[in-house]
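Example record

The entry below shows one chain as it appears in the dataset: sequence first, then structure tokens.
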Amino acid sequence: MSIRFRYILCSAYKIRAPVVFKTRQNLAVFSRPSQGEYRTDKYRGFLSAASVSLVQGTRHSQHKNRVIHPLVSSSSFSTLYTDSNISNSSSSSTSETEGSASDCDSSGDIMDLKNVVKKLNRFAPTTLAEDWDNVGLLVEPTPPHKVNTLFLTNDLTEEVLEEAVTKNADMILAYHPPIFSAMKRLTMRTEKERIIVKAIEKRIAIYSPHTSYDAVDGGVNDWLASGLGEAKVDPLHQTYSTCYPTPGGYKLEFLDCEQGLTHTLKSVPGVSDIMLSVNDNMVRMRASMNCTTSGLPRALEILNKNEDVKGTIQITQLMKPPIPHTGMGRLCTLKEPINLKQSLERVKKHLNLPHVQLAVGKEKSLDSPVKTIAVCAGSGSTVLRGSLADLYVTGEMSHHEVLAAVAQGTSVILCNHSNTERGYLQVIRNKFDEQFEGKVKVIVSEVDEDPLKVF
């Protein structure tokens, strides 16, 4: 495994001839605009805010006369940091907005749908979602479609849709995707079909973030963890970039005394970023290159024909870089331990619930100390399984999953599925008010609620 921060993850949105400058303090990516001046590209959502210090820009006046060798090729950046890798390009052409068009229509008062989607994807790229999920723009009215009112809900039921229509919503953000399983027809037969038909008739766009909001830094799970007290919070399951930081997933190195093999390999498809350095014995050059899965066997076939080189070959499989502070679930290590009863009260207060369910871990009691808490919004069975913590907090778990947790000495608090998610809508409403600069009215459903009640 080789992760080198010289391949630093930094946005190359609309970049032209990117150059990576290495300074004593940091790494920075500069692009060369048409005017011929350097500028630092705007940091965009692939890395969390906590990592900005790694990619801080430096003043161009310090470097404008210095010749620096690029550490990452242009092709690497164009592959890694195009909008298609940050947004859900397959969902709709709306997500693939390019150019420097304004985020508003000509009137300057209402945002176009494609620009609203672009901003939503910047906040939480749909590539963060689980593979099984169905996220992004699910219903798109015929363009042009202006968004004056964005309506937020956890679950899109028929009653919630009627509320959205009454409040003149142009777009609905439904945390849970109303289209999940494949639909072979759109009729009045089922609730899901009726919802989609009516949304289309009323020209209401539907967008669902679901597990991308679970994974993103500052997302649903971080909100859920925030009510437990001051703590160090880490993802239970780390999210990794969808792309390698190089054109290939392998690094191939060998010693070459004549450099002839290096020239031969330049013509092999799938081999790139060839670099030479002087070896310690000053007799042979050390060659290093990146190879794709298909390019690696072709390169090895050439190298293995040379007996002098054959024994010097080293192959390193590269790892897709982790995205800091991003992933499924959260493990909270409290700064100051509390007991189980206090944990229970904090959860109820944070979620504004009069009642929750509690399973006390084996040989534990309400007075038992709690230092570590694993949380997962919604259904936590898979995400929390096997996690070592004093307490699990989630919406729901199966009977046998709860028994397994109790047997290992972990207590479990269950709050019902959507109760661990819905409160986050108020958080993102405030975020969106700022992000949309008042040009989109953002409202939260008053009808949406968890279907289960405790009597």
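Notes for this example: The first strand starts at residue 19 and ends at 22. The chain is about 25% helix and 25% strand.
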